[in-house]
Write a structure and sequence with these properties.
- This protein is mostly helical.
- The chain has one domain: Orthogonal Bundle (MetI-like fold).
- The protein has 14 helices and two strands; from the N terminus they run ααββαααααααααααα.
- The radius of gyration is 28 Å and the shape is flat.
């Protein structure tokens, strides 16, 4: 009885919701409509260029579809084929992860190093800044063709001068053990974009902190470790994350280098199987092209695309969630 009386008293004393005036409801609707109007360009772009393609990729990954006949549901058959029967998947996955780890690391290190070097130059700054940035402006196809001819083991000048110096003469793009290092050299050569980003970050470090560190007796390494790096760590994080995303989409340079090195330049009616030499330059984006546009197996191509998306998201999430180690966005 006491509990019932208490509950009735609580219900009687509880505040009752006041009705919303019609004018206030109309105002809220107008504000919501205005907000949606401002968000509509982003919402349309997100839906058309991200949500719809992603959902379509998931849908077709469970279908047998060649682009001509209607899709037929096959369950997990496409996934099983990619993981167990497609002969290039694991090799391409290893190559892609190798490029992500090695290429991104070297690009960030060299970009930061050149940025530090250029900011210390007192005379001729404009010349050196332009000289280091110009390679980045070279079209990827043209730059790759030029590197393939320069590193040609038979006629290229690089191996010619290495031989004169008594040094080993690698096969570069014709050698499975040297093809990925050659692609990494090409990527490091076009380091101008990161150099400019790091230069802007380095010039923004407060000079008062350097002066205080010098007064405390800090040497060059201590000043970089305790002053420079903490200030530019968000920019380093940006360079690493964007580098991982770009390298996971690595396609043009690898396939062009393989074509030029093999001597097979695909023309009308010709097909070139990517990965030359011996599958050492296979990457996941090349598999999407090979399955979807050379073998007309859209379902399996969608499986590889989803795997590529998942790995990219995993790398990005791991880097952004790190709180210690190589860098921290909280520093």
């Amino acid at each position: 009885m006491a509990l019932a009386l208490g509950s009735r008293k609580a219900a009687a004393t509880a505040p009752t919701a006041l009705p919303v005036p019609p004018a206030l409801r109309r105002k809220r609707r107008r504000e919501a409509a205005r907000t949606l109007a401002f968000l509509s360009p982003w919402l349309i772009g997100f839906g058309v260029f991200f949500a719809y393609p992603l959902l379509s990729t998931v849908y077709f990954s469970f279908m047998k579809y060649d682009g001509f006949r209607p899709p037929v549901f096959t369950g997990l058959r496409n996934w099983t084929y990619v993981f167990t029967d497609y002969p290039f998947f694991w090799e391409g996955l290893r190559n892609t992860l190798w490029l992500v780890v090695v290429m991104v690391t070297l690009r960030v290190v060299f970009g930061l190093g050149i940025g530090l070097l250029v900011t210390k130059i007192r005379s001729g700054l404009g010349f050196f800044r332009t000289a280091f940035y110009l390679p980045y402006l070279a079209p990827p196809v043209a730059a790759t063709i030029a590197f393939a001819f320069l590193l040609n083991p038979g006629t290229g000048p690089v191996d010619h001068y290495l031989g004169k110096l008594g040094l080993p003469q690698p096969g570069w793009f014709n050698d499975p053990n040297w093809s990925k290092p050659a692609l990494t050299m090409l990527a490091v050569w076009g380091i101008g974009d990161l150099m400019v980003i790091f230069m802007a970050a380095l010039l923004d470090v407060p000079t008062e902190q350097y002066e205080a560190a010098e007064l405390d007796g800090a040497g060059p390494w201590q000043r970089f470790r305790y002053v420079t790096f903490p200030n530019i760590s968000p920019i380093v994080m940006f360079a690493v994350v964007t580098g991982v995303i770009q390298t996971m989409q690595y396609y043009t340079q690898a396939i062009v280098a393989g074509q030029v090195a093999s001597g097979i330049i695909g023309g009308s009616g010709e097909q070139f199987e990517p990965g030359y030499p011996n599958g050492s330059t296979w990457t996941l984006p090349q598999m999407v092209y090979n399955l979807g546009f050379q073998r007309f197996d859209t379902g399996s191509a969608c499986v590889v695309a989803l795997i590529l998306f998942a790995i990219s998201m995993a790398f990005t999430s791991l880097l952004l969630r790190r709180k210690s180690g190589f860098m921290s966005v909280e520093d």
